[in-house]
Amino acid sequence: MTELWNDSPGSFHPSSTPDFLPEIVDLETGLPCPEGGEGELVLTTLSKRAMPIIRYRTHDITAIIPEPCCCGRTLRRIRRIRCHSDDMIVIRGINFFPSQIEAALLAVEGTLPHYQILLNREKGLDQMEVQVEVTREVFSDQVRALENLQAQLAQSLEHTLGLRVKVRLVEPHGIQRSEGKAKRVIDRRRDV
Amino acid sequence: MKIHQLSLFLENRPSQLRAVCKLLADAGINLLSLSLADSEQFGILRLIVRDWQRAQSILEEANRLVKVTEVVAIEVPDRPGGLDDVLAVLEKDNINIEYMYAFTFGLEKKAALIFRFENVDAAIVKLQAAGVNVVGSVELFEHAEV
Question: How many contacts does A have with B, using Cβ atoms within 8 A?
């Protein structure tokens, strides 16, 4: 529904005409973000009469770029859309995406193992566990080597996310395979 | 002189060990010795079987992760101080034992122990030079038959 005008690299105008009002809102509070802050793109039509939309939440995560665009238009310009808010995980006020977890696992193992993120609530506090399948490349007959791997993965995740994460090694094919897109996140926080 | 040991990753929950044992039982593979190392979250099952290649392929077909490691079987006199003599040799040559476990049968008044060293070949050379009897797979499995 949005017209995209790509002018300056890495950014675009959501519309070429001043018929849309783009806003960036905080994902949790829904309140407008400070100028240039990252959040969800919300659109409102200003001139449509037949089918107006008011503060439509796009689920796209982006930010408004305050600086003028090289194309000369003075309309608002937004950053390239990085991800979709549906994929985002919010835990203890920290937001991150599964892609960041993948980067952390990849940094330790060299190849991306099959993994799953489990979110739970224990004693009123959100907990995150990352289950990682043990691969042929990293498996060892020595407990020490596997405990070392576990510690390295936990450290890499903590470094990437700024959050202490529990890592559990599971057997190969221990994580259920789903058809099509892999189900990476299991959120049980509302079940408690 | 080296014995092939199969190692398997097990999650720390009921029925994990049995699942592996059942696979081997159904294939008629006898376990000659085993050791189970455990941590808070997982275990590592180490197995000695005669036909390790067949056991490996059966387990791998069942999607099990199997690692083959070379270990050393050492004959130790079945008397007080028998093991101590062997350990004295290892200590003198500064050879570290990663882990060890005992065999389920004796070799006529002697016991057989399985040792895992970081450098297997170097350890065998040192042990043999000190007169310790390192048992090969043929001899070991012959005794297992009795």
Answer: 50
- Closest Cα of chain A to B74: distance in Å? 19
A134 touches chain B (CB under 8 A): yes
Long-range pairs for A14-22: beta carbons < 8 A, 24 or more residues apart: A14/A41, A14/A43, A14/A76, A14/A78, A15/A75, A16/A73, A16/A75, A17/A75, A18/A46, A18/A75, A19/A45, A19/A46, A19/A47, A19/A48, A20/A44, A20/A45, A20/A46, A21/A45, A21/A46, A22/A64, A22/A76, A22/A78
- Render pLDDT for A94-153 as a digit per residue (tens, 0 to 9): 888 888 898 899 999 878 889 999 999 988 888 999 999 999 889 999 999 999 999 999
Q: For residue A80, what are its two tokens?
A: 């390239």
Q: Minimal Cα distance from B35: which residue of A?
A: A141
Q: pTM to 2 decimals?
A: 0.74
- The ipTM assigned to this model is 0.84
The answer to whether A60 touches A81, Cβ cutoff 8 Å, is yes
Q: Looking at the complex, report in whole angstroms how far the Cα of residue A26 sits from the nearest Cα belonging to chain B.
A: 38
Residues of chain B contacting A169 with CB distance shorter than 8 Å: 9, 41-42
**Tell me: the pLDDT tens digits for B34-88?**
999 988 889 999 999 999 999 999 999 998 999 999 999 998 888 899 899 999 9
Determine the distance in angstroms separating the CA of B67 from the nearest CA of chain A, rounded to an integer. 7
A86 interfacial to chain B (CB closer than 8 Å): no
Whether residue B46 and residue A170 make contact (CB cut-off 8 A), yes or no, is no
